[in-house]
Design a protein that fits this description.
The complex is a heterodimer of chains A (about 230) and B (about 80). Chain A has about 230 residues and is an alpha/beta fold. Helix content of chain A is about 25%, strand content about 25%. A 3-stranded antiparallel sheet of chain B has the order 2-1-3, with helices on one face. The chains are: A alpha/beta (about 230), B alpha+beta (about 80).
Chain lengths: ~230, ~80
């Protein structure tokens, strides 16, 4: 399985993602934002970081990068595109995913482990996973998911909510919401479920001695689903 | 020609920065404030002398990059 990680000026989780993808069997290539063509890929990842210094709005500049034309075409033809953290912000700015990510409700940069609940397994990312609750890491200033009422109705009707913030037992009350995001949303799909954006970083949970292994479960399952 | 644009958050979008500024103003003794909303202001020097065309170019910029229309409104406020 081949993957590509796009590096924008200011990306800082691109190499972590490269390590994670290679560890679980992807043959990964790093792709510079100013390139025109994507290498042949089964998965394209937009990594976390602070592309273009978060100028104007997080992800807004990166969403207009040269390589994004190819990424958008790849997504529109059904290719798997996953955006983590700043990558999620870039995906909403391209319009591939609905809504926006606002400043965290209490104006704090949040850096901690959280639990998320997978709600929908009818998609290539979470299909065949044995468990529903995962511990991932978040580190963001703008993770407060917001969309219009019509968009919210639409994403609910189409089962586009991928993961919710919750406690370790899967309770999704407001008190387990770290950033004020609507309905505790931590990640969403596009309508077709080939594009996933999420604030948590599974690539930071791939080594028991450093963190946890829930990211390992995610990546192992993902590559098996793609085979 | 210089065209200016103001980007503001839509009414139903939470503006935590505006709230904190409001609280700070309140603490400083500015007690007559009902609400503060923070926005962005741009001055764009466009290589176009026709005011209608220049405004049209900046409006296109607002729609495509400067504003995110899910949460923000834009207003072209003046030309020089």
């Amino acid at each position: 399985m081949k993957s590509s990680v796009i590096t924008f000026p200011g990306s800082n989780c691109d190499r972590d993602m490269d390590v994670a993808l290679n560890k679980f069997g992807f043959k990964n290539k790093m792709v510079w934002h100013n390139d025109n063509e994507l290498p042949k890929s089964d998965l394209v990842v937009l990594p976390g970081g602070f592309s273009y210094g978060d100028y104007l709005r997080c992800g807004s500049m990166a969403s207009k990068s040269k390589i994004m034309h190819s990424v958008i075409n790849f997504a529109k033809s059904g290719g798997l595109v996953m955006g983590i953290c700043n990558g999620f912000q870039i995906l909403v700015e391209t319009g591939l995913l609905p809504g926006v990510l606002l400043r965290n409700k209490y104006l704090e940069f949040i850096c901690k482990n959280v639990h998320v609940k997978v709600d929908n397994k009818q998609n290539p990312y979470f299909k065949n996973l044995d468990k529903n609750i995962f511990e991932f890491h978040i580190a963001h200033n703008e993770g407060n998911y917001f969309c219009t009422k019509d968009q919210l109705d639409e994403i609910k009707d189409n089962n586009q909510i991928a993961i919710y913030y919750c406690d370790k037992n899967g309770h999704t009350e407001e008190q387990y919401n770290p950033n004020g995001s609507m309905k505790n949303i931590a990640g969403i799909f596009n309508k077709e479920k080939n594009v996933l954006g999420m604030m948590p970083h599974p690539e930071r949970m791939i080594d028991q001695s450093l963190s946890g292994e829930d990211g390992s479960l995610f990546f192992k399952n993902l590559i098996n689903n793609l085979k | 020609m210089i065209v200016s644009a103001i980007i503001t958050l839509k009414k139903d979008v939470l503006d935590p920065q505006g709230k904190v500024i409001h609280q700070t103003l309140d603490g400083m003794g500015f007690k007559d404030v009902n609400e503060v909303r923070q926005g962005k202001y741009f001055e764009i020097d466009v290589n176009e002398n026709d005011p209608t065309k220049a405004k049209g170019i900046v409006e296109d910029m607002c729609k495509k990059l400067l504003a995110n229309l899910v949460i923000e409104n834009y207003k072209i406020i003046e030309t020089q």
